[in-house]
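A quick aside before the break. I want you to see a complete sequence-to-structure record at least once, exactly as it would be stored in a machine-readable document. Don't worry about memorizing anything.
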Amino acid sequence: MDPLISVIMPAYNSENTIGRAIQSVLVQTYTKFELLVIDDGSIDNTVEVAESFAKADSRVILLKNAQNLGVAESRNLGCRKARGEYLSFLDSDDIWFKGKLEKQIRFMQNKDCDLSCTAYSFINASNEPSKNERAYMVPETISYKSLLKENVIGCSTVMLRAAALAGHEFDKAYAHEDYALWLNLAKSGKTLCGLNEVLTGYAHGGRSSNKLKAGKNRWIIYRRSQKL
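That is the input. The structure line, written in tokens, reads:
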């Protein structure tokens, strides 16, 4: 029997992009999922857009934070409310390409891993992989040591067993809250694998572009989160 996948989508003032993000989930070939959209106190029409999808498809569930809590707490809320055996993350300005869920869940079942990520690329105006920029590929196996050297895991590409998250969560104390979580999972002995196929599309600005700032944030994670 196919497992239920809970897709967790935090959203804040994303009225211009959340529609395409939700639509990219709804057109997946794997259909046994629930999509939890967590609005983080948006002041634009994000809620209205999400509500229109929720009314049309019962798999779309809208949750609302009473105030702006940040992306880490929004994802944590989604994880707590999720009913699926597997969790998958998609930010409201990114998209999945067709077949992403189907290919990734089969990959995880075959590999018997706790967490998997996929290769990704930036998208163009037509929501297709940009031909002018390189795709970001991933290794088949990801160790704690290799992850310390480079974070190859894009959050919007991740799928993991819900049970593997027990005792772990996104920590709002860190700018790269997802990276800190992946490191903690790897350090605790969870198996991390990479599906080296471009199945996720990032909007420009969706990944860290300021290298100096990103480097400083990584140093903070090394010292404070990983005690290195």
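Two observations worth writing down. The first strand starts at residue 5 and ends at 11. Residues 89 and 221 are 21 Å apart (CA to CA). We'll return to this after the break.
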